[in-house]
Amino acid sequence: MKILLVEDEPELQKSIRDYLAPEGNIVEVASDFIVAGQKIALYDYDCVLVDITLPKGSGLDLIRQIKDRRSKAGIIIISAKDSLDDRIYGLDLGADDYLPKPFHLPELNARIKALMRRKLFDGNNEISFNEIRILPHERRVMVHDSSIFLTAKEYDLLLYFIANKNRVISKGALAEHIWGDHADALNNFDFIYNHVKNLRKKLLEKHCEDYLHTVYGLGYNFKTPE
Q1: Which of 34, 65, 76, 100 is most buried by its number of CB atoms within 10 A?
Q2: What is the DSSP letter of 138?
């Protein structure tokens, strides 16, 4: 999952990043309104964690920018500014949840996961796609009820493909989603080919339908059979 954390408190910023990253999340950080706005204009995210009170601007205006771009990112407000008016206004603008400071990191993590289940997989704790079954809380994948070992990147790719099935996804979009915002500075995305190839091979070895297809010159398509 690719997360943008918009937070200006260095200690809280580090704590959230250190807690979420080991679970396989890519956590990008913006410390003020201007940097956050630039990132939102350039990159796509699954979830944005945004404080209301920011240097150089308001998190509420940032939420408005996200919604104006018709971004599909989930939005969770994390703020010590706990007035009812701000909370209602943020939710009315399009935020999905509000978590007042101080909060426990496991609760934040649980809310992010719940939000992603609602947005991408109809709120299910398990993700089923034909013979593929994914248990996100264990980061485990089953094919025909047989466990399959995937690396962290292969797991993230599979989840991203299933969430975007029947859509052509460019190598650049895959690199940005799985490796973070700095992926656009790379000279090429050849490394994507190896990860996708290995994922496809492991699925086929478990007698999975061949869903992964290369769209030459464009990227990849996780295509359901007609």
Answers
A1: 76
A2: T
